[in-house]
Structures are given as C-alpha cells and as structure tokens.
Amino acid sequence: MDAVAIRGVLLDFSGTLFRLEPGVESVDGLHHMDGTPVGTDRYIELITSLNTVGEKVPTGLPTGLHEHWHRRDLDLAAHRDAYLHLLADPAHRLAEGMAARLYDVMLTPAAWRPYPDAEAALRLLRARGVPVAVVSNIPWDIRDTFAHRGLADLVDAYVLSYAEGLMKPAPELFALACARIDRAPGETLMIGDSAAIDGAAAQVGCRFERVEPQATANRPDALLDALRTHGIAE
C-alpha cells in the first residue's frame, strides 16, 4: 500500500463513471435512409467512433471545422457543428434530419448509464469522508445526468472543461480539481479511462489508476477495484 493515504478522489465521467448507452425509448424513431431503425447498438457504434478519435481531426471533416474539433470540449456550438457534419456523412446512411436527432440524444441525461459499481464507489467514498471531484472534457453541464441517477449529492465538485476553459491533459485542470476538494495532489487519486489524458494528473503529483471504457455490462467492479488498489476499499 502507498505510504501516503488517499484523502481525495478525482473521477473522469465518460468511460469511467458513465457510458453513453441509451435505451430503446431514447432512439425510438431514429432510422436510416432505407427506413430501417438505427437501434441502440448502431447508435452507440456511431457516437463512440467519434468520441474515441482523440485529438486527430477525423477524416472527412472540412478545414473550416478543424478548429471546431480542437475546441469541441470548450464550446457546445463547436462540438455540435463538428459532430453534425460527421454524422451527416452519407456513409452512415442516416435519413434526412436524423443526424441532429442522434446528436440531441447524447445530451439527454437518460442516455447515459452509470457503471454497475459507480454508485457503490461514490457511496463508499462519502462514507469514508473522502471528497470527490468529477473532472471531464465535455462541452455541457453533466450535473443533471448525475441527478437523473440519484448520484448528484455524492459528488463534491464538478471541474468541466467548458466551464473552466481548459481541457485535460492540461495539468492545471487537475490542480484546480484538487483545490476544489481541498486536498493536496499527493494525497489524491485520479481514476480515468485514458492514460494519456487522465494520467496527466500525475504531472501535478496525483496518483492515477486506469479503468477500461467497456460496455457497462462487461465492467462490473473496476471502480471498486481501483479504490482497493489504493487502500480505500477492502
């Protein structure tokens, strides 16, 4: 076990605490040009393919939208413009008007599903008096998503890129998150799904634990395991 006890925890949002997995009701009416329904699996495939591109500009995005792509987690309008253009690619075979409807689902709290152990991990941290900050690259307010699942009261601070004008892996964002929960980086653990992006918390002295951004059904206890690794859970 590490010599210094963990007294604060930072958590990524997408792929760590929640995953975009809309139910059937969320994608009802979405269809392809031939009339076939998009369905939940196809929806997740389409959006995930864009969410995992990273900093590399996706093929097919015109030069005029390259800056939008790089700023997508700072500005909702830039995010929407870039995503709508990519979703409207004829290769996706979406019917007219469907790109915008697909995009809007992504902003719906009900479309995001918490990992099976997310609530248990957050409640354990609350019971142990360990404050929590959610640190996310995202261009909209996700607090309603936590509230929708009854988890809002288990998070002490939200450090979101669009609100702070900074994106991970900027070390300043992790330092700010530590300050928001009144913990020194050396006694704080960052849990996220990207070693390159979330792992940058180590630059300010935080410890880091990576979890795989799998489907929620396939990852039942990675968050609790991460806490156990650092001596927080038994």
Describe the fold and architecture.
With 234 residues, the chain is of the alpha/beta class. The chain folds into two domains: 8-18 and 113-229, HAD superfamily/HAD-like (Rossmann fold); 24-107, no CATH class. It has ten helices and seven strands. It has helices at residues 24-27, 39-51, 66-70, 76-87, 98-106, 118-127, 143-148, 161-164, 171-180, 222-229, and strands at residues 8-11, 18-20, 112-114, 132-136, 157-160, 188-192, 207-210. A five-stranded parallel sheet has the order 5-4-1-6-7, sandwiched between helices. Strands 2-3 form a two-stranded antiparallel ribbon. Helix 4 crosses helix 5. The mean pLDDT is 93.
CA radius of gyration is 18 Å
**CATH level-four homologous superfamily name of the largest domain:** HAD superfamily/HAD-like
| CATH secondary-structure class of the largest domain | Alpha Beta
Q: Structural class, from helix and strand content?
A: alpha/beta
Secondary-structure element order, N to C: EEHHHHHEHEHEHHEEH
The count of domains is 2
Helix content: 25-40%
Biggest sheet details: 5 strands, parallel
Strands, total number:
7
Q: Low-confidence parts, pLDDT < 50 over ≥5 residues?
A: none
| CATH level-two architecture of the largest domain | 3-Layer(aba) Sandwich
